[in-house]
Specification:
Elements (H helix, E strand, L loop, with lengths): L6 E2 L5 E2 L2 H75 L19 H30 L11 H13 L3 H7 L21 H6 L2 H38 L5 H25 L3
Antiparallel strand pairs: 1-2
Length: about 280
């Protein structure tokens, strides 16, 4: 016979063995742990899938960026070749060269050779007239850029180089450091606008990447405006100390530059909202 120890309470009723209660509790804990493990594994799989999708999107974006960069490089080379050709054409322009026959032509004279020379001259004259008509048409509809007086040649070369190729990365990082180029305390507008955190949490990875790129562009604009604002302030103080308005024109032109930089900053912030 099996001996089962039954504990009697005061009412005389029997209680279940404590071992059975502990076993049931262990099973419940084991089931809860299993469910927890399954939930964690499912969450981990979801994170891995999402990470894989983001990596694929990053690869696509990098490929697109490479294609865009290659196109821009080709456009730059085309522009340089175009400008070089234009300069060469302008330099080579002078008296238009018209082929002259080696023999004198007498329209009244006969003979096959003379007839050939007459027809050749007539064809040359027609080609010249057609070219002149087309050249006038090109001049009429060709876009002409309005330019001001030339500046110092070395300065012009440096500006062209900077605007086409940018500056060295190390020098750029040095210029945008807060300790080297901090904004004036009372210029709250000279700062990069950050995306609202609640919006950042719901936008996709592509939008986040584009937002970061636009922030980088905006950072350059803001830091450039910061330097210019300090220069304008120094010019105004120097003008007050000297007691004349020699710098008024320069100060107004610098203010125009600040206005354009501020407008560019606003355009960047508006563009970020479209991502």
């Amino acid at each position: 016979m099996l001996n089962v120890n039954v504990v009697l309470d005061r009412s005389g009723k029997g209680k279940q063995p404590e071992k059975s209660a502990q076993s049931s509790s262990s099973k419940d804990i084991s089931v809860a742990e299993s469910r927890m493990i399954m939930a964690v594994m499912s969450l981990q799989n979801s994170i891995e899938k999402q990470t894989s999708r983001m990596n694929e999107q990053d690869k696509r974006i990098n490929e697109h960026n490479k294609q865009i960069k290659n196109l821009l490089d080709k456009i730059t080379l085309y522009d340089e070749d175009y400008y070089d050709c234009q300069i060469d054409e302008e330099c080579d322009k002078g008296a238009e060269h018209v082929a002259q026959p080696c023999c004198e032509i007498d329209p009244q004279a006969g003979g096959k050779e003379n007839d050939y020379l007459v027809s050749r001259k007539r064809k040359t004259d027609e080609d010249t007239n057609n070219n002149s008509r087309f050249s006038s048409l090109a001049k009429r509809f060709k876009a002409v850029e309005t330019c001001d007086a030339p500046i110092d040649s070395v300065l012009a070369e440096n500006i062209t180089e900077l605007f086409r190729k940018g500056i060295d990365e190390e020098r750029y990082n040095d210029l945008i450091k807060e300790e080297n180029n901090a904004r004036p305390e009372n210029c709250e507008g000279l700062c990069v606008v950050q995306t609202n955190q609640s919006v950042w949490d719901i936008i996709g990875p592509v939008a986040r990447i584009n937002d970061k790129k636009m922030q980088g562009i905006d950072f350059s604009v803001v830091k450039g405006a910061t330097i210019l604002a300090k220069v304008v302030d120094k010019m105004a103080k120097l003008e007050t100390e000297i007691g004349n308005d020699r710098f008024s024109k320069l100060k107004d032109e610098c203010n125009d530059v600040l206005a354009l930089l501020g407008h560019a900053n606003n355009q960047i912030n508006l563009a970020k909202k479209t991502f």
